[in-house]
Amino acid sequence: MIEIQNISKHFDKVVAVNKISLKVNNGEIFGLLGENGAGKTTTLRMLATMLKPTSGRAKLAGFDIIKDAEKVRGSIGILFGGETGLYDRLSCEENIAYFGQLNDMKTPEIKERIKVLSKAFGMDSYLKRRAGKLSKGMKQKVAFARSIIHNPDIMLFDEPTSGLDISSIRGVQEFIKNCKEEGKTIILSSHSMSEVEKLCDRVGIINKGSLVEYGTLEELKQKHSDEDLEEIFIKLVGGKNEH
Ligand SMILES: Nc1ncnc2c1ncn2[C@@H]1O[C@H](COP(=O)(O)OP(=O)(O)O)[C@@H](O)[C@H]1O
Ligand SMILES: [Mg+2]
Question: Is residue 134 a part of any domain in this protein?
Answer without folding.
Answer: yes
